[in-house]
Amino acid sequence: MKDLNKYLRDQRRRAPKPPKQFEELEASTLFCSKCKKAVPVRKKLLLTLPEGDKYDYLCTECGSPIGSKISKEDIPIQFITK
After folding, report:
1. Structure pTM?
2. What are 32-81's pLDDT values in tens digits?
3. Number of domains forming the structure of the chain
């Protein structure tokens, strides 16, 4: 019985982790407080930061900013100094 329990514990440890369902989500429609309704959005690059790129979501009807997002990059940043 002890061998069976040990075997089952080892199998659980070695079991592959399930893949992530979503790495990142993209908004296609958000609520605009000026238009008072859900509207399609346009994604605009605002800043490039060390932790990732910051995007603003803009209303396609009035152009006002509705939301923002920081896109996390897996690529490490390398600083070059001379």
Report:
1. 0.61
2. 999 999 999 999 999 988 888 999 999 999 999 999 998 876 666 667 78
3. 1
| Residue 1 belongs to a domain | no
Euclidean distance between CA atoms 64 and 33, whole angstroms: 9
Assess if residue 15 is contained within a domain: no
Residue 36: domain span? 26-73
The verdict on residue 8 lying in a domain is no
- CA pair distance 72, 81, nearest whole angstrom: 24
pLDDT greater at residue 11 or residue 28: 28
Domain membership flag for residue 60: yes
Of the candidates 65, 62, 59, the residue with the CA atom closest to the CA atom of residue 46: 65
Can you tell me the distance from the alpha carbon of 52 to that of 75, in angstroms, rounded to the nearest whole number? 9
The residue count of the chain comes to 82
